[in-house]
Structures are given as C-alpha cells and as structure tokens.
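Please decode residue identities from the backbone states below.
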C-alpha cells in the first residue's frame, strides 16, 4: 500500500483518490507518523502532500526524517520543499505566487516522465521554491518561473514535484503518478470495487459484531449502499431510519420509502414540523447545519433506544470530512460544517460506524453497482444532508421552501428531458435573499430571484460550471418564472470550485 502523509493541503485526499483510481490501496496519515507505524501497515511507498507551511520559516514540522531513507518517496509542492530542506538543499520565498495552469518542461528520459510530452500543462500553487538541490539530486523539469520544478535522487528512490499531479488541471498527472507507482515503486493494481466492499464489510463486522445498529438513510447512494451492506451483514440487528426533515425535494420522501421498504428493515419518521420549528428565524448557514445535524442525532438516539441499538452508521464520505474539519491533525482549513461530521454533538450517545469515511463518491457508486442497486440510486446527484435549507440563502420558512421546491423540481425535470442529468455532477436551484423588479402582465412586480447551479466534477473536490445549452437554460428560466409563484428572475452561476464551493451555503 501507499502511505500519504498529510501536511494540511486541501488536495491531500485528491492524491488518495488518484492513487486508488490506479487500483492501489492507500491511507492518509498524520505528519507525526513514524517509520515503525508505516512498516506495520505494510507501506511500500510514501507521498508527501502539499500544505500551507513555509519550510524556510517553520522548520521541519515534526516529521520523521528516517521515512525518506526507508521508502520510495514522492514529495508534492510543500513535499518537494520539505525533501530539499531535510536533505541539505535550500528553499526560498518567491517574489510572486505561481498559481494556476503552467507549461512544464520535463526531462522525458526520466523514469517519472516516461511517455509524458516534452511540453505539458501542470497546476501550480506555491510561493516558495527549491533554490538549491540537495547533494545527490538532479533537476528533472522546469517551468518559465521555476528552474527546479521537479527533482529526483540519483538512486531513483526519491522524487519531488513542485506542481500538483493529483488535480485534473495537470493534463498528464495520472500518467506521472502511474509511472511512480508502477514503474518506480513496482506496485501492482489490486484495489477495486470487490476489494472496497470486503474492506467495508470487515470493518462493520469488527466494530458492530453481534450488536444492534441503526443507519441514517437519506436515499442517496452513500446511505443506500451502507444500508444494504448492513442488512446483509447484520440482518434484523440493523434498522435503517429515514427521517423526513421537511426540507426534501418534491415527492422525494414517498419515492425513498417505496424504493427501500422491501430492501431493508426500514423505519420512516416524519419530523418536518420539528425541523422547521427549530430553523425558524435562523439565517446563518453554519447554525442551520448544526441545528439540522443535532436534530437528526436526537431522533436517531430515540430510535436507537427503541431498537436497542448502540451504534449509528452513516454514509459519511471523504469530501464531507475534508470540508468540515482537519481529519488528520493538520492545518487544513474548515470550509463548512457537514451535518454528519462537524454538526455532531460532542457527547454522542451512540458509537459511530462510518466505513465510507475515507471513500470518494465515485468509489461508493462502484460499490452500489457491485451491490446491484438500481441506476437511479447509483447515479443520483449528491444532495446535502441539510437539504433545501442550505439552498435557501437566509432564513427558512414554508413559503420560501415551497418556492424553491417547485423551482428545483423544474430544474430536475428539464435536465433529464434534455439528456443532461447524467452528464453533470450536480444541477440545482438556489433561492436568493433578494428581490428584483420585473414586469408581468404589464404590471410592475417585485419578487424573488432563483440562481441555477450546474457543475461537472469527478469527486466534488474541484468542479467546473457547465456550459448548458441556451435552449435548456431558456426553458428552465421560462418555466420557473411562469409556473413558480413569487419568482420573476432567474440567473446562472458561472463560478468554478475553487474559488467557490458547489453549494452556496
């Protein structure tokens, strides 16, 4: 396996995703991990992530230098700078930041760049740079601004990249990582849907045993997969609890109950009034998320007592964890709290079971196909746990909720009719906290504004807005303005992630 050492980059988990795409198992580990721990885990190669630190100012961040001597190593961004500092090179602050797509000139005879073009586009994001190579190292690539954009040790075991091969903007990043894993480290591809399923099942058996567990079922692919796996392993000891929080899409509650009532041991709880009462007058997005998270937990704890359960299983994924907190003790910034991660109360009365915690959405979809789940579940667009509450900017009430629910239904129908639903990562409507002047029936109106958001992504960590055909946009806009009472304007969000997030709250 590969050990990925986290130095606080928001992209650390993307490295894991790329490695797993190449069918190599990997784990993300804290910067304080020791050689002994890596050896016990069977690590054959180590990747040092990027991060916000400055080697020339901060020194070495509690890092076991022996790791460099014992394993194959690839340092990325901050990682190459750490390698240089540890091994006697020199790192200096740059006069300006090198950020975004950059032309990179690799030495294509080098094993790391075998098959890579002589000029290729990579993604840079750094201030500091390696100014002097460590003894026993050679430069293997450059850009117009950075002479040492890549380097390796003469024995070929240690490599460093100033750019990020893990992001999709690095055109041949996958080829570079493949060269490192297969050709340099000699690893064999063996991580697939079957392997993932076996790992998840083993974790559940080890943690739950003969105990009783409840599963928070939302109807999305994550919780659906987990619910089916728990049913398979735990039988009637597993209870899937579907809570209608009152902020679901139009007709969604009925569809979820109909889909799962014959597949799993299902309990339906209609708590819409309770959630809306608690959300009354609350406009801060973090407060909304935490209120919803805490209310879910209160209900789950109540249902667990009835069931005799001691465990709460959730379909928490990597991106949820990344954006909610720094999961490995690193300095990663909190982007937003997810109700099933940062929204959990400190004194949770149930033991958490989160076997998907280090999986990405596409990996869980692969599990869904392995489990034989229907396509409309496997390929369902991600939907936030707090539901439409975080797509209403500002406070939530029944009137605003009904406006968004109707607009959202139109977006879903038209994207499917246009054959675009399956081509994009997410498509949805957002109700903005403003009103605008319009003219309808020769009369002045002063009504709500709906924003459309359609993005393309592979993992939710980065995303690009989609150039939806004008005809489809026109149809969606026309239907919303004509059919949804209280809306007189529709706008389209053309911002990528980063700098924006996919959801508005």
């Amino acid at each position: 396996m590969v050990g990925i050492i986290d130095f606080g980059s928001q992209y650390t988990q993307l490295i894991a995703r790329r490695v797993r795409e190449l069918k190599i198992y990997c784990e993300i580990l804290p910067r304080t991990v020791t050689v002994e721990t890596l050896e016990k885990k069977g690590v054959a190669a180590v990747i040092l992530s990027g991060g916000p630190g400055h080697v020339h100012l901060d020194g070495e961040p509690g890092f076991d230098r022996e790791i460099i001597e014992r394993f194959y190593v690839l340092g990325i961004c901050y990682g190459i700078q750490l390698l240089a500092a540890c091994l006697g090179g020199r790192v200096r602050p740059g006069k300006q930041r090198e950020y975004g797509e950059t032309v990179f000139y690799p030495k294509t005879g080098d094993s790391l760049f075998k098959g890579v073009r002589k000029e290729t586009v990579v993604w840079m994001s750094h201030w500091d740079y390696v100014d002097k190579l460590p003894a026993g190292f050679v430069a293997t690539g450059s850009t117009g601004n950075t002479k040492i954009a890549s380097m390796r040790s003469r024995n070929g075991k240690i490599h460093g990249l100033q750019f990020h091969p893990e992001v999709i903007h690095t055109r041949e990043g996958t080829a570079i990582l493949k060269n490192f894993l297969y050709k340099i480290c000699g690893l064999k591809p063996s991580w697939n849907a079957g392997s993932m399923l076996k790992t998840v099942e083993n974790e559940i058996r080890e943690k739950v045993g003969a105990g009783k567990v409840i599963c928070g079922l939302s109807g999305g692919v994550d919780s659906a997969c987990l619910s089916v796996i728990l049913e398979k392993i735990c039988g009637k000891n597993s209870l899937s609890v579907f809570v209608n929080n009152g902020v679901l899409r139009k007709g969604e509650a009925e569809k979820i109950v109909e889909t799962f009532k014959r597949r799993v041991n299902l309990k339906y709880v209609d708590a819409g009034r309770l959630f809306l009462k608690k959300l009354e007058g609350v406009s801060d997005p973090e407060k909304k998320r935490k209120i919803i998270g805490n209310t879910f937990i209160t209900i789950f704890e109540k249902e667990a007592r009835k069931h005799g359960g001691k465990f709460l299983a959730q379909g928490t994924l990597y991106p949820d964890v990344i954006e909610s907190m720094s999961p490995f003790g690193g300095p990663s910034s909190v982007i937003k709290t997810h109700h099933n991660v940062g929204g959990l109360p400190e004194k949770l009365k149930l033991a958490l079971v989160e076997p998907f915690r280090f999986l990405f959405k596409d990996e869980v979809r692969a599990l869904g196909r392995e489990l034989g789940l229907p396509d409309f579940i496997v390929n369902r667009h991600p939907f936030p746990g707090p539901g439409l509450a975080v797509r209403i900017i500002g406070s939530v009430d029944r009137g605003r909720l009904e406006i968004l629910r109707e607009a959202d239904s139109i977006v879903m129908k038209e994207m499917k009719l246009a054959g675009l639903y399956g081509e994009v990562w997410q498509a949805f409507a957002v109700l903005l906290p403003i009103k605008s002047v319009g003219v309808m029936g020769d009369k002045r109106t002063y009504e709500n504004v709906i924003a459309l958001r359609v993005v393309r992504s592979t993992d939710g960590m980065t995303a690009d807005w989609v150039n939806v055909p004008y005809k489809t946009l026109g149809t969606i806009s026309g239907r919303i303005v004509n059919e949804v009472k209280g809306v007189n304007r529709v706008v389209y969000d053309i911002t990528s992630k980063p700098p924006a997030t996919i959801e508005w709250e």
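Observation: The chain has 16 helices and 18 strands.
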